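Request:
Um, any thoughts?
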Amino acid sequence: MKQFLLCLLLFAWLSPAQAHKPSDSYLSIAVHGQQIAGQWDIALRDLDFAIGLDGNGDGELTWDEIRARHAAIAAYALQRLQMASAQGVCPLQVTEQLIDNHTDGAYNVLRFHGICPGAAPGSLSIGYTLFADLDPQHKGLLKLSSDGHTQTAIFDPDSPRQTLSLTAPSRLAQFGAYVKHGIWHIWIGYDHILFLLSLLLPAVLQTQQQGWGRTLRVRPRILASGLHSPDTTSLSTNFDFKAAFFDVLKVVTAFTLAHSITLTLASLSVISLPSRWVESAIAASVVLASLNNLFPLFRGRRPVAAFVFGLIHGFGFASVLLDLGLPQSSLVASLFGFNLGVEIGQLAIVAVFLPLAWLLRKTWFYRQLMTVGSLLIAIIAAIWLLERVADIKLISG
């Protein structure tokens, strides 16, 4: 019964993690004098939930159904996006609607135009409340270009209005913005988190069973003398928190080095892989990492596995960075800031996980987490894998 309740608890936690990331929209704005030209990519699944796009209710959206709701989509979106200069409101008008595919599905693309009153604005105040009443986790990722300079911002229900200068942004502020993007991306990347946690779960147990340094070996003739075989724990000469810490450090360092390499190469367009391949491989890595807790697939080589699969995860990290765009004026600094943010977010997860895992390592709950939890993670990741390979949706939401 306890195992069943644990299964329900873990499944309830994992079931919302259906895609690579939760609800985001991508807002690109270019300002030329008084003129504003913009593009707003909004997930069709979110629009369908908010205003209803599936006319016949069959669970599949067609172009005719979406086109029939173009006016409603434009009205709904523009009611939740306001722009103003110091001279007054800059009215916006949708000029075109298209469909585009992102790594997590199809998006409706709104292209719009606006004119600010008076002279060319020195700053732009933007109010963003899309889905604020429906999804408190929704984020709007903004890329603002003006006079050859690019800057970014993140909107959410807690920060729905921001005023951005249209002069050249400071390199420090730009760097900080990309650090923030990196932290946010790792925290919403359920598949990245589950992969990392699956590799880290055995850390405290591996230390308990094997020790970090020399392990005492008991000769067979001593055991044959009638003495009881000693407990596995007593065979470890260096069983302590420090040993678990260094085991985690090796895994995290390998993962960091690997994804930093491919994140950089993909962001600079040196290497480009189809997004479905990348997302499918990430799901497969979660399956293998979780099954390793049930069967010795990696046989003590978890850092090697972390490095190999980290190369794939780096392409996944790069997908959101490519959507945001890298400012050419500070390309290296922005890339480094995003990668640093990913590491900060990752280390924050590890900082919470390791002390808790150490305290719980001898409990029934942790043993069940290793077995039942790892099995559930494998099942959820297998569903992701099938969805991404076949481009189908098995779990609604």
Summary: The beta strands are 24-32, 35-43, 81-85, 88-89, 92-102, 105-115, 123-128, 139-146, 149-155, 161-165.
